[in-house]
Design goal:
Strand content of chain A: over 45%
Largest interface: A-B, 27 and 23 residues
Helix content of chain A: under 10%
Order of helices and strands of chain A: EEEEEEEEEEE
Distance between the termini of chain B: 41 Å
Helix content of chain B: under 10%
Number of strands of chain B: 12
Number of helices of chain A: 0
Largest sheet of chain B: 6 strands, mixed
Radius of gyration of chain B: 14 Å
Structural class of chain B: mainly beta
Distance between the termini of chain A: 36 Å
Order of helices and strands of chain B: EEEEEEEEEEEE
Oligomer: heterodimer
């Protein structure tokens, strides 16, 4: 199994540009999520999904959109990039049930200039 | 409200010595507790978790953690540190009564094991 994969690994955007961060998992996990990691702040949940066609907002959803058309894929869209969105983004997945651990992708390092 | 504290930004320990990375939490109900490790330029990897039962939980790479309900703590421990244990460690908590968007991660503790 490849686990959780993310593309691209690195990205530089100009303010106002849009882009999509890709995330895929091959473990048939129902739950998928996007986090951003900023120094000293741990991981903050952006959006999550409990199955195809079902998404919801996390702690810091503004400026981001998600959709989940299949169990495997959970792309994150930046609508109009801002410097405040400079961060490292992680996708994660798990089986349903709050006691299940999450599996994380390798991350995407995004810089917005 | 839920919260997780990792009171030490940095922990330094000599190779072969025992290590402890501290975590305290606050939830209104009973918690699910997790430890994850992050090596440089990598995603987080699961180490261990407490769901219920025995307060001492054993996990990957020789790590263990003790759940202490009265002190609301879940400290990560290892009897003998290795240089390869140097990484960033995150504690996470979820109140079992809340929905998925309430998984809270601590700010992380950087562990350096000195040869």
């Amino acid at each position: 199994n490849a686990g959780v994969t993310q593309t691209p690994k690195f990205q530089v955007l100009k303010t106002g540009q849009s882009m999509t961060l890709q995330c895929a998992q091959d473990m048939n996990h129902e739950y998928m999520s996007w986090y951003r990691q900023d120094p000293g702040m741990g991981l903050r949940l952006i959006h999550y999904s409990v199955g195809a066609g079902i998404t919801d907002q996390g702690e810091v959803p503004n400026g981001y959109n998600v959709s989940r058309s299949t169990t495997e894929d959970f792309p994150l869209r930046l609508l109009s990039a801002a410097p405040s969105q400079t961060s490292v983004y992680f996708c994660a997945s798990s089986y349903m049930g709050g006691g299940n651990e999450q599996y994380f992708g390798p991350g995407t390092r995004l810089t917005v200039t | 409200a839920q919260s997780v504290a990792q009171p030490e930004d940095q922990v330094n320990v000599a190779e072969g010595n025992p290590l402890t990375v501290k975590c305290t939490y606050s939830v209104s109900g009973n918690p699910y507790l997790f430890w994850y490790v992050q090596y440089p330029n990598r995603g987080l990897q699961f180490l261990l978790k407490y769901i219920t039962g025995d307060n001492l939980v054993k996990g990957s790479y020789g790590f263990e953690a003790e759940f202490n309900k009265s002190q609301t703590s879940f400290h990560l421990k290892k009897p003998s540190a290795l240089v390869s244990d140097s990484a960033l460690y995150f504690c996470a908590v979820r109140d079992i009564r809340t929905s998925y968007d309430k998984v809270i991660f601590g700010p992380g503790t950087s562990l350096s094991v000195i040869p």
